[in-house]
Structures are given as structure tokens and as C-alpha cells.
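Protein in question filed below.

…
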Amino acid sequence: MRIGVDARLLCEPVTGIGRYTQEICSRLIARERDVHLYMPASPISDMWHSAGANVRSASFRGRLGKMLWSQTVMPHYAAKDELDVFWGATHRLPRFLSERIARVVTIHDLVWKYAGETMRPFSRLVEQCLMPQAIHAADMIMADSISTAEGIKSVFPDAKDKVRVVALGASRWADPKPFSALRDVGVDGSYFLFVGTLEPRKNLARLLRAFAQLPPELRTSFRLVIAGGKGWGGVDINAWLTELGIDGQVILPGYVTDDQLASLYAHAEFLVMPSLYEGFGLPILESMLYGTPVITSNCSSMPEVGGNAALLVDPLCETSIANGLKLMMTDDVLRSELAHNTSTNVNRFSWESTVNESLAVFEEAIERRQMKLSYGR
């Protein structure tokens, strides 16, 4: 089976969907599968060449440049490489892909539909235009969670028979360093952790206001660490901290390396992820791999992923978030019980299962494509 991959996110610093693409591709290559990676620019890591992947990169920059590349250069090379199946790892499929090639697309979320107000206007417009096209063109669709799968079936009922749930795994990419190593990112005492890009969907404004409601002694005993790259949408963390009077109780290391993130997960008292919507919520599992329990939202996929190792709160209610924080900070028994449950919960998910299930979907897509061709459709 020759597998082509839209690997555009492997040209950028790794975040959620990029990590998903990286984990699956690296495992396919390790299994000696014939994998062809298509990138609009040079990969950020040399690992792909040394691992034995077939890499075709170009020199297209910017959003419009990448869109042009995806509809022209990428399908050209996909045909030239005589692929059996093409996998769009991030909501997209080339419009002019050869009819002979089976198509699979992963839909990670439907933010544009269920939380569109939290997106950049242009990004929302692109999703509204290109996701329906990809769903219609796909022979098979992979959804990260039951929640996302049900959303796809609701919005695109004609596609319901080709949707398969393929859950993500979790990556313990590094062993944590001693607590003292966290001084490099400004941590020197007990803390709880937020991980994610600083954007409206992550609900940071409500989280900070909820934190500010707590008694001063709790805020000084458990500082909040926000690890994430700069986002958009008026998320001005420093201004919010000053306005709320909590700037001395929040640590902002910014984007952190994988080694630093592993240590932050491992030594945190708990992770907090009160997102307004998530297609999966990978930091929930990543945190639990290090034995760290979670506070997360009671909506979309987050209860599904958090399982019995997460405390659920209403992300639209600051009081609910504040009560969850206070409970996790003060109830040592609860925090210990949730931490104990992390290993059982994480064992429900693995990247090896993700790859096995993805390969099964690729096979099903090839069969469907061959049937379409044989019937002249």
C-alpha cells in the first residue's frame, strides 16, 4: 500500500494536530510502510529523511501559498508517485486528486460549526468552504472522538456511513527532569498547569477570572502556569493579569520544548483545560501519562477523553471553574483518587491502536474507491 500524506504541519513547530500527524507517520514508517510525505516547505526536522520516508517538499510560504501548493503541486506528485491512498491529516483533500487514488480525511473537530465565534474570521470561512468539499470527496472519514463523529453525522448526514472513530493516543516523549529543572521556566513552588495556544476557544479569560475569585492564600499556594505559544483574538494575558491583580501568581513561560513540557506535566498538581470546545483534547491524555489529574469541561469530547481521572466543570460559568479549582486544591483525597485513575484511563488510548485503526480505514477506502471505479462513478 502506497500511502500519501498531506504533511504540511511537519514544517512547523509541533502542536496538537502536528503531533498527531507526526506520531502516525513515524509509526507507519517504522513498520516499513511505503509512506510519501508532501510538504509545502522543508520539514522542521531531519528525522523524516533519515527514517526512510519519501519526502517531497517545496518552497511555498504563507496561507495562500500553502493553499495553492495543496491544489496544484501536491496532487501532481500524488499522481506521479502512484499512490493507493491519500490521507488528508488536517481537514483537507486536494480538489484535483487523481480519480484512481482513494481518499481519507481526518476531521479533528467542527469548531467552525459549534464554536465559530472563537475562530479567526478567515479561518472560519476557509473551514466552511473546504471541510464540506473534503467530506464529500472522501471515501472514508476518520474522527478523533465519538463526539466529533456524531457532529459530522449531524452536519453532514449523507456522510454518516463512511465515518469511523479513530481515537488519538498520548505521547510520553521525554522523561521528566527533577523539579529543580523547572526553575528555567520560572517555577519554584506548587502549581497547576494550562497547556495550549492562547486563543479564545481555550477560555483563558474565564479561567483567570475564576482563579482571581479564590482566596489569596490558595492563589499563592498553587500558582497557575500557562504554557502555550502566542495566539490571537485579543488574548492579552499580561493586561488581564494586571487588571485582575494576579500578575504575581501566574507564570508565563510561553511556548516550551517537549522536555520542558514533560517536566511541567509530571510535577503539576493538576492540569486545567476549560475549553469551550475540543475535538479531542490531547493535553488531557498527555497530562495523565505523567500521573497528573485534570480539570476539564463538561462538553464536547472532553468528558469522553477525561474519563474517571478528570473533574468536570461548566466552561461558561466562572463560579463552576472556581469551585473546581478550589476543590482540587484543597481536597487531597479527591486529587489522589483522580491521579490514581490516570493510568487506567490512559490505557484506553494508544498510538499503536490509532495506527492499526487508521490502516484499516485506508484499506476500506481503497476498496470503496475500486468499487466506484468499477461502476464508473
